[in-house]
From TrEMBL:
It is found in: Cytoplasm. GO terms for biological process: fructose 6-phosphate metabolic process. It comes from Brassica carinata (Ethiopian mustard). Pfam families: PFK. The gene is PFK. This is ATP-dependent 6-phosphofructokinase. Keywords: Allosteric enzyme, ATP-binding, Cytoplasm, Glycolysis, Kinase, Magnesium, Metal-binding, Nucleotide-binding, Transferase. Catalyzes the phosphorylation of D-fructose 6-phosphate to fructose 1,6-bisphosphate by ATP, the first committing step of glycolysis. The active site is at D222.
Amino acid sequence: MDSNGVDEQEMKLVQGAAGYVLEDVPHLSDYILDLPTYPNPLQSNPAYSVVRQYFVDEDDTVPQKIVVHKDSPRGTHFRRAGPRQKVYFKPADVRACIVTCGGLCPGLNTVIREIVCGLHYMYGVTEVLGVNCGFSGFYSKNTVTLTPKDVSDIHKRGGTMLGTSRGGHDTSKIVDNIQDREINQVYIIGGDGTQKGASAIYKEIRRRGLKVAVAGIPKTIDNDIPVIDKSFGFDTAVEEAQRAINAAHVEATSVENGIGLVKLMGRYSGFIAMYATLASRDVDCCLIPESPFYLEGKGGLYEFIAKRLRENGHMVIVVAEGAGQDLVAESIEQQDASGNKLLKDVGLWMSLKIKEHFAKQRKMDITLKYIDPTYMIRAIPANASDNVYSTLLAQSAVHGAMAGYTGFISGLVNGRQTYIPFNRITEKQNKVVITDRMWARMLSSTNQPSFMNPPNGTTEATC
Ligand SMILES: Nc1ncnc2c1ncn2[C@@H]1O[C@H](COP(=O)(O)OP(=O)(O)OP(=O)(O)O)[C@@H](O)[C@H]1O
Ligand SMILES: O=P(O)(O)OC[C@H]1O[C@](O)(CO)[C@@H](O)[C@@H]1O
Ligand SMILES: [Mg+2]
């Protein structure tokens, strides 16, 4: 550990001129000496051998910050993903496994498919195992064999063909199992919690000195993983959310003083709500965990609803599930199996409060329809662009593991495929920054109140 309590094993920094820093990912050769290398089989693959400069140069890196000033330091860079001239595994010796953990997300099956097909068709690897039902499946379930034929059309289905779970991460039992099954490449698909688990597995594997590459593929429809441009499945979820918003709009416009209220996923981050609102243009108010709001008094939600209804005769409100949690009165805080806070139903609560408020006021008769498409936006197959994105992430992970990298996730940074060390994506969550331009664009599209000045005594929701 260094003086900041950061595990040095996780920090592989390379400094260069003009403030250049490479936050590199670990490599099997960092802790196993004299590993043999082999020519990359892609050299003789007809599909790839025609591509000029198909192999990624060892020195290629991708900057995290692309907007720079004349004299500003070049800053953090990540290793560029892609196939290397040399690989650290003989294809016939590879025994890979894939596991999916956490909540569902469009594209999970595509990632599974493309890891299997990438290993098989690009590298000639034939032994790929599927671990059923998340981390606990390593020690409590039998594995399944995955061939290109088994996965050929799974990308057309939502969910994960392997099953998933929360909780049940037991590092030693998992690594014992990896050792017992002679697995030497582990592909772990999941969100922030999963990648913390993946990092623990990598560290234990390294402690035991095993030649096992651990690669993470970040997944979460909430888009709450930092550093990467966005997570796969996010676009599909935003697109599906449009259907709920459209329905809310149709319901609201078909009656006098109609209100359509839609609750969307987003536990700590309101990206889905914000992008769905921006895409739709039918939304009058978007509430997210990062932006506190209040109901009563001047500048509050009730006042705004009354104003919009007087102006337009209808309105649509989108609320992210993690918004306003402090307002929803309930004393017992509960957690799921992974230790994530279980949220109170802010949508249901808001619909009751709004109805109650206008009934009490007796100035305006409203009709409110509450639509909760929560699971519908994540239990669907990926759209075309998420399918392509998931494919590239999976292929990059395969190239990285074959090249001997380990303890990394494959992620898109400024439009380029990269390898990012686990600690960079698990140390904090990505959130909507309400002082950034995107939130300002959203506010200017809805013209909603900023909720910046709650009257004294008003409860403000903070998250
Ligand atoms: N700090 C941690 N250390 C080790 N394992 C963890 C940690 N946090 C979570 N996990 C494990 O990771 C798995 C998934 O975690 P979690 O349920 O939080 O979902 P997630 O990966 O964050 O995905 P989602 O975006 O759906 O929340 C669980 O099996 C859990 O036990
Ligand atoms: O799958 P569960 O346990 O119902 O959890 C739902 C949570 O998972 C997510 O879909 C992803 O983290 C959140 O948006 C949501 O709060
Ligand atoms: Mg999570």
